[in-house]
Design brief:
CATH class: Alpha Beta
Protein name: Serine hydroxymethyltransferase
Keywords: Pyridoxal phosphate, Transferase
Helix content: 40-55%
GO molecular function: glycine hydroxymethyltransferase activity; pyridoxal phosphate binding
InterPro entries: PyrdxlP-dep_Trfase, PyrdxlP-dep_Trfase_small, Ser_HO-MeTrfase-like, SHMT-like_dom
CATH architecture: Alpha-Beta Complex
Order of helices and strands: HEEHHHH
Number of domains: 1
Strand order of the largest sheet: 1-2
Strand content: under 5%
Distance between the termini: 29 Å
CATH topology: Aspartate Aminotransferase, domain 1
EC number: 2.1.2.1
C-alpha cells in the first residue's frame, strides 16, 4: 500500500465496506503499528471455498477496484482516518463494488453451513 500512498488501515476500511475481509499488516519501514503500510489476504479461506486460479484473478481485480476507491476517497477526505471513514458512508462506488463482490462470493458457499438453516439470508 505504501507505494500507492495509502495506509493499510484505510484500505482495510474500504475492503470491509465492500465485503472483502483482510487484515492491515505492518511492513518493513513502517513508523507505527497504528498506521501499517500493508495488508494481508488469507488465501486459505478462499481455497476452502473451492476457488481456483481464475477466481483469484477476479479477487485481484476486486482489490484493485477497492484501491482505486480508497485513493479517490483519500483525495476527498484528507489524511485523517476518521475523516476518511466518514467519506465512505453513502459512497456509490462502494455500493457498486459490494454488490459485485457479494454476487461473486455467492457462488462459493461456506463449508459446513447450510443456507436454508441460516437465520439471516444472504441477498446479493
Amino acid at each position: 500500500m505504501k507505494p500507492q500512498k495509502i495506509t493499510g488501515s484505510k484500505f482495510e476500511k474500504v475492503c470491509d465496506a465492500v465485503s472483502i475481509t483482510l487484515n492491515k499488516n505492518c511492513v518493513p519501514g513502517d513508523r507505527s503499528a497504528v498506521t501499517p503500510g500493508g495488508v494481508r489476504v488469507g488465501a486459505c479461506a478462499m481455497t476452502t471455498r473451492k476457488m481456483v486460479e481464475e477466481d483469484f484473478e477476479q479477487i485481484g481485480q476486486f482489490l484493485h477496484e477497492a484501491l482505486q476507491i480508497a485513493l479517490k476517497v483519500q483525495e476527498e477526505s484528507g489524511p485523517k482516518l476518521v475523516d476518511f471513514v466518514k467519506c465512505l458512508k453513502g459512497n456509490a462506488d462502494i455500493a457498486a463494488l459490494r454488490k459485485s463482490v457479494n454476487a461473486f462470493a455467492a457462488g462459493f458457499p461456506m463449508p459446513g453451513f447450510d443456507p436454508k438453516d441460516m437465520k439471516y439470508k444472504f441477498e446479493a
